[in-house]
């Protein structure tokens, strides 16, 4: 049984080159801002406070606060260092936020609290006096 290449020939080859070039450029860009962020900030997760050393700094990631990976100001104002777990959590929260149409949890679509557990408590306390 032989493996067949998908049809397309030169067109697929060109697309493969474009994708490979884009990935290479992204990796170079990431390397640049990661190196700068690690020099600017202490090696501590900005969410959970976990500290990192040379032995485990590979588990510390650079998070873009505005979620735009092309926004890399030299002062690092769009970055924060997060551990792998907190970074994954932050992106999951962002995806859920966007799935709601970019609205906050307290937006128009959320239910208002109608139960008031202490309603009438003042009158009950006055009655006992």
CATH fold naming of the domain at 21-102: His-Me finger endonuclease fold
Number of helices: 3
Mean pLDDT: 82
Question: For the largest beta sheet, what order do the strands appear in spatially?
Answer: 1-2
Unreliable residue runs: none
The largest β sheet comes out as: 2 strands, antiparallel
Tags for this model:
two-stranded antiparallel sheet, 129 residues, mainly alpha, elongated, single chain, His-Me finger endonuclease fold
Short précis:
Helix content is 42%, strand content 8%. It is mainly α.
Describe the structure.
The chain is mostly helical and 129 residues long. It has helices spanning 10-40, 84-99, 121-127, and strands at residues 60-64, 79-83. The termini are far apart. The model has no long low-confidence stretch (mean pLDDT 82).
Give the helices and strands, then pairings.
Blueprint: H1 10-40, E1 60-64, E2 79-83, H2 84-99, H3 121-127
Antiparallel strand pairs: 1-2
